Task: inverse folding
C-alpha cells in the first residue's frame, strides 16, 4: 500500500552570520587599566592556546603572506615589540585582523610615540614580579606580563614593593621579550616556573615605589586618552615644555637644578625628552601629563633636586661595581653569572664594565666558560652512562628509553648529544638507523 505524505513547507529567514576569525580569540588581560597586558605576552598566550611555539604561530597564522626578509627583520626586533616602532603597529593590525578584535592598541606604546623619545623606553630583556605570577596561578587567573614591567624606568612591583626579577632563579639566564620557546611565567631555557610564594632580600626602596606609582598614575591617564581616540601631536609637547620653561623664572630655576639644563636647546631643535625625563619634568611642576599638555599653571613646584637619579644618568659607584665583580669571581655558586647578567643587575652596559675593569671581566668570562665546559662534560658522561647501563640490562638504548632515564626526551635535537649517542651505539656494536 502506497501512502503519500504531504508535509507543510517551512521558510526560514536568511541570517547574516559574521565571518569567523582565523584564529581563536583570547581577551587581553586588564585591558582598560594601567596593568594592561603587553603585546609580547599576548602573543605568547595566543600561541600557547593554539599549542604552537610563538615564532611558528606568527609565521603560520599571522604573517603567512609576508616575505622571508620581513619575517627575519621582525625576529631580530622582538626586543622592541612593546615600544613605538612602526612595524609594531603593523603587526598589531595583523593580529587584530586574525582574531577579529579591535582593542589591542593599548598593548603597546605606539599610541604615545609623539610624546617622548624612544630611547630609554623598553627593557632589552624581560622582567617580572614572582609574587604576582604565583598569586595569579594560585587563583586560576591568566598569567601574563603587564606592559608597565617592560619600561626601563620601572624597577619594582608597586603591589608587593619588591624589585622586579630579570633572571631565572634556577639557571640564571635572562629572558628575551619574545623567543622561540617563550612561555609566560616559565624560563625559556630550562622551563622552570618563575613564580615564587616568598622572596627575601629584594625589597624596593621608598623612592623607587613612589616613582613607580607616579609612572602608573600618568600611564593610566594616557591610556584613557588613547581609548577615546586622542592623537597626541609632537609639537604639543614641545610647546608645553617651552611654555613652562619661559613662563616663570622660579620654574626655570627649579628645572635647571633638577638637571634640565639643555631643555632650551631641545626646544629650539624640536627634540622630545625621553620617557623618564618627561615624567620627571611633570613631577617637578607637580602636574600630571594631561595637565602638562593642556598647559595648566602649576600651583606647587616641587624641589626634587635630590631625585636626579630619574632625570639624568646616575653617577656610577665604581667601588660598588668593582666589589660586585670581585664577589662574582669568588662566588661558590653552582651557576656563575655572565657579564650580561651582572650588567643588568647593576643597571649599566657591558661596555662600561669592560672599559673600566678589563681584568675582572676577563676572569668572569673565563670562569663562566670553564663552568660551562665542565657542565657539558658532565652531561656527556651522564648520557654515556645511561646508554651503557641500558646495554648492560640487555636493552636496546633507543631514543625513548635513553630519554626517559636521561631526563630529556628531546636530547637528540642537540647535535652534540646526538653525536655522543650515535658514537656510543657504534662502540657497543649497534647499527645506527
Result:
Amino acid at each position: 500500500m502506497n501512502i503519500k505524505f504531504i508535509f507543510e513547507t517551512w521558510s526560514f529567514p536568511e541570517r547574516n552570520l559574521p565571518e569567523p576569525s582565523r584564529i581563536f580569540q583570547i581577551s587581553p588581560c586588564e585591558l582598560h587599566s594601567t596593568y594592561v597586558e603587553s603585546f609580547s605576552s599576548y602573543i605568547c598566550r595566543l600561541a600557547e592556546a593554539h599549542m604552537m611555539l610563538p615564532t611558528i604561530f606568527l609565521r603560520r597564522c599571522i604573517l603567512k603572506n609576508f616575505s622571508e626578509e620581513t619575517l627575519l627583520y621582525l625576529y631580530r626586533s622582538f626586543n622592541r615589540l612593546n615600544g613605538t616602532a612602526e612595524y609594531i603597529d603593523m603587526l598589531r593590525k595583523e593580529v587584530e585582523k586574525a582574531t577579529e578584535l579591535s582593542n589591542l592598541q593599548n598593548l603597546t606604546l605606539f599610541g604615545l610615540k609623539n610624546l617622548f623619545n624612544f630611547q630609554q623606553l623598553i627593557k632589552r630583556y624581560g622582567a617580572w614580579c614572582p609574587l604576582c605570577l604565583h598569586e595569579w596561578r594560585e587563583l586560576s587567573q591568566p598569567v601574563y606580563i603587564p606592559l608597565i614591567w617592560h619600561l626601563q624606568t620601572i624597577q619594582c612591583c608597586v603591589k608587593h614593593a619588591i624589585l622586579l626579577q630579570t633572571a631565572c632563579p634556577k639557571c640564571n639566564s635572562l629572558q628575551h621579550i619574545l623567543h622561540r620557546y617563550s612561555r609566560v611565567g616559565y624560563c625559556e631555557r630550562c622551563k622552570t616556573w618563575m613564580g615564587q610564594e616568598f622572596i627575601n632580600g629584594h625589597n624596593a626602596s621608598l623612592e623607587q615605589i613612589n616613582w613607580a606609582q607616579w609612572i602608573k598614575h600618568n600611564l593610566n591617564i594616557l591610556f584613557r586618552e588613547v581609548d577615546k581616540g586622542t592623537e597626541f601631536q609632537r609639537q604639543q609637547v614641545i610647546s608645553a615644555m617651552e611654555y613652562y620653561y619661559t613662563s616663570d623664572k622660579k620654574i626655570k630655576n627649579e628645572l635647571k637644578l633638577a638637571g634640565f639644563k639643555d631643555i632650551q636647546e631641545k626646544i629650539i631643535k624640536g627634540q622630545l625628552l625621553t620617557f623618564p625625563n618627561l615624567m620627571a619634568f611633570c613631577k617637578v611642576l607637580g602636574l600630571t601629563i594631561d595637565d602638562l599638555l593642556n598647559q595648566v599653571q602649576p600651583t606647587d613646584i616641587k624641589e626634587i633636586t635630590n631625585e636626579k637619579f630619574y632625570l639624568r644618568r646616575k653617577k656610577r659607584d665604581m667601588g660598588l661595581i668593582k666589589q660586585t665583580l670581585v664577589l662574582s669571581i669568588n662566588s661558590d655558586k653552582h651557576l656563575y653569572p655572565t657579564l650580561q647578567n651582572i650588567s643588568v643587575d647593576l643597571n649599566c652596559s657591558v661596555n662600561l664594565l669592560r672599559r673600566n675593569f678589563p681584568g675582572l671581566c676577563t676572569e668572569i668570562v673565563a670562569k663562566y666558560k670553564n663552568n660551562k665546559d665542565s657542565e657539558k662534560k658532565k652531561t656527556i658522561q651522564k648520557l654515556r652512562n645511561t646508554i651503557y647501563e641500558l646495554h648492560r640490562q640487555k636493552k636496546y638504548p633507543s631514543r625513548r628509553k635513553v630519554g626517559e632515564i636521561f631526563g630529556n626526551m628531546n636530547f637528540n635535537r642537540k647535535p652534540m648529544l646526538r653525536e655522543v649517542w650515535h658514537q656510543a651505539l657504534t662502540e657497543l656494536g649497534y647499527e645506527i638507523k
Q: What stands out?
A: Strands lie at 156-157, 162-163. The mean pLDDT is 83.
